[in-house]
Amino acid sequence: MLQVKLDTGFNIEVEFALSPFHRRFFAWLIDATIQGTYLWLGSKFLDALTSFRWNDELWIVVLFLLPFICYHLLSEIIMNGQSIGKMAMQIKVMTLQGGQPSVSQFLIRWLFRIIDFPVLLFLGVASGYSTWWVVIFLFAGLICTIATPHSQRVGDLVAGTILIDLKHRTSWQDTVFTEVESTYQPRYPQVMQLSDRDINTLKNIIETVKKRNDHDLALKIADRIQSKLKMNSDQDSLEFLQTLLKDYNYYSTN
Fold this sequence. Notes:
Layout: E1 3-7, E2 13-17, H1 21-48, H2 58-69, H3 71-78, H4 84-89, E3 91-95, H5 103-111, H6 113-116, H7 119-127, H8 140-147, H9 154-159, E4 161-165, H10 196-212, H11 215-229, H12 237-253
Antiparallel strand pairs: 1-2, 3-4
Helix pairs in contact: 3-5, 10-12, 11-12
């Protein structure tokens, strides 16, 4: 299993398992099957409409194709870095800093799918409409995934994202939010100086500390945060990090 050490927003390296290539492939295959089924059923439905003509109703064709074209973009935004295929294969998109990607990063990954998965180019070569030398671009995404140390395709390199393996973890939370008791009393208002991405990274780090019983990592992160926020705490390092997480959620929802 390939591992990657990511430098978090607190200048601490945390290790994650990279998604193996075969799981990425099967995730893509599942998503492609879903997209193909949508096209097949949708075209059958439109053909069944006696008044529908593909050449005359362009706007309907565009609306029909939008879910197919935007499937991966919308899935990863709505499902926090996953599509149905990625969820089935237990893999997920995250940033090189160990946090949740932004909408712009998901958008960049999606735009570069035309290079990483050049379906139209493949069809052009197969049908003879494209010259033979463009075939080298058909494997750009595959070559990039194999050659790069973090197994990134072109879209990942540009967006600053990677695909991680969720199977090798005890618990993974997809958002910065966690349940807070109604009677909870916050202790550290300084936590609001941190961004959502910092908190999301913090949540992932807490899960890593619990999984590996790595109190040295918790201590390093706690020291970094206290230095960054110019604060002190009498709690032990893990308890301090968990309190920060609860405080952030308390202040964010009240």
